[in-house]
Amino acid sequence: MTTKLIQKNDLSFFRSPVNFDPELIFNCGQCFRFDRKTVDTTLDTPADTNASGNGVFCGVAKGRYIEVEKLGDDIIIRGADKDADGLWDDYFDMDTDYGAIGKSFEHDRVLCEAYKYGSGIRILHQDEFETLISFIISQNNNIPRIKGIIKNLCAAYGEPFEGFDGNTYHAFPTAEAIVRAGEQGMKELRMGFRAGYVYDAAKKVLDGEIDLKSVYGMDTKSALEYLMKIKGVGLKVASCTALFAFKKYDAFPVDVWVKRILEKYYNGEKDADYFGEYGGVAQQYLFYYERCMNGVML
DNA sequence: GGGCAGGTCTAAG
DNA sequence: CTTAGACCTGCC
């Protein structure tokens, strides 16, 4: 019942996957390193390439540069290695049945409505350290600036590599690279008061005081407490990290948007417990839905 | 120019 | 234990 990446004749793709919309996956606020591919209109490109440019999302994940495009019912992944060996099945969380999760929301009118809008969302299985640092940067910040800071952070301190298109891209910096750059180096990237937090996180990871891999073995409550030992990591950032990096689907990040939803539709009476085992997924649908309703799109 | 953006820390009751 | 204020920065 699960869809695996098919690789043949230099082409990698998912064959008619359900609940898979690149637009929603990359624009629902879970990751900051993917963008819609911009077609350079100043170049003399053949007319027939115009159509495809719009739905292509490109970015760096798993140490590679990939381009993701929905083509008919299929999803094409350009830049996947020949022997990816489950890498992208893992990244796109292909073993999880989002249709079944959506069904489990049927008892709740609001969730049901949100699911209708966001059913193409999947929770990406992102790198642990990258997710932690990215969401530290996200606090009291707006998405364009978050993306900008992360882009500059990678360009300055991430390992460069060549993408399949021949261009140079950068991996997310290691903890060591960030510690070497120092809090001052982070400040120069215009992180503001978050610079010290990012430094503290990198230092704790480098020193082994925080062992990110060990979080996989923890229940969600322990994971949150553990991550919150890092300065600048509160319940919201910890929940995002638990959900987007450690696949803790019951982690329920409450940001200003979700807070608004809880008050508006649930009279402020519901919490993470109510949303249950897949509350984190529910949160993503709600978050996306409410932003759509308010015309906030990227 | 004050307000705001996917929050968290700190200090004070 | 709960709750104001402050906080870097950039864009409106």
Give keywords:
two-stranded antiparallel sheet, globular, single chain, six-stranded antiparallel beta sheet, 298 residues, DNA-binding, alpha+beta
Chart the SSEs and their pairings:
Elements: E1 5-8, E2 11-14, H1 22-27, E3 34-36, H2 50-53, E4 56-61, E5 64-71, E6 74-78, H3 87-91, H4 98-103, H5 109-118, H6 128-138, H7 143-157, E7 160-162, E8 168-170, H8 175-187, H9 194-207, H10 220-227, H11 235-244, H12 256-266, H13 272-275, H14 279-293
Antiparallel strand pairs: 1-2, 2-6, 3-4, 4-5, 5-6, 7-8
The structure holds a DNA duplex (13 and 12 nucleotides).
Walk me through what this model shows.
- The model is unreliable at about 45-50 (pLDDT under 50).
- The longest helix has 15 residues, at about 145-155.
- Helix 5 packs across helix 14, helix 8 packs antiparallel against helix 9 and helix 10 (about 220-225) crosses helix 11 (about 235-245).
- About 45% of the residues lie in helices and about 10% in strands.
- It starts with a strand and ends in a 5-residue tail after the last helix.
- It is α+β, with helices and mostly antiparallel strands and about 300 residues long.
- The strands form 2 sheets. The protein has a 6-stranded antiparallel β-sheet. It has a two-stranded antiparallel ribbon with strand order 7-8.
- The structure holds a DNA duplex (13 and 12 nucleotides).
Summarize the structure.
With 298 residues, this protein is of the alpha+beta class. The chain is built from 14 helices and 8 strands.
